[in-house]
Amino acid sequence: EVQLAESGGGLVQSGGSLRLSCAYSGAVYSNLCMGWFRQVPGKEREKVATIDDGGSTTYADSVKGRFTISQDYPKNTLYLQMDNLTPDDTAMYYCTTMRVCQLAPNFWGQGTQVTVAA
Length: 118
What we know:
- By secondary structure, the protein is an all-beta fold.
- Helix content is about 0%, strand content about 55%.
- The protein is built from no helices and eleven strands.
- The protein has strands at about 1-5, 10-15, 20-25, 35-40, 45-50, 55-60, 65-70, 75-80, 90-100, 105-110, 110-115.
- The strands form two sheets. Strands 2, 4, 5, 6, 9, 10 and 11 form a seven-stranded mixed sheet that branches.
- A hairpin with a 4-residue loop joins β5 (about 45-50) and β6 (about 55-60).
- The model has no long low-confidence stretch (mean pLDDT about 95).
């Protein structure tokens, strides 16, 4: 069992920045990948960014160059630095684990809301 707890969401003006955090615990070691997804009501969840145990990262085209995923192993925390935010980034953001990055998530956090005002 894995526990994931996101924080750091909020309301920000267009062009602003936010940093999301995900504190994790439990049997995370069995999952070689962690990532961030987001969802807008009425739309499918979108994979935003992933990072594997080797530090390799992937990003959705919509966030490349603006978002950065990172992981602090001693602190058991996953981050998502989001810069130059736009209203299209408004969504609920979820922290996830995956056995490998190509597979669907097996654990989800409760989510943190990000709202970007125009």
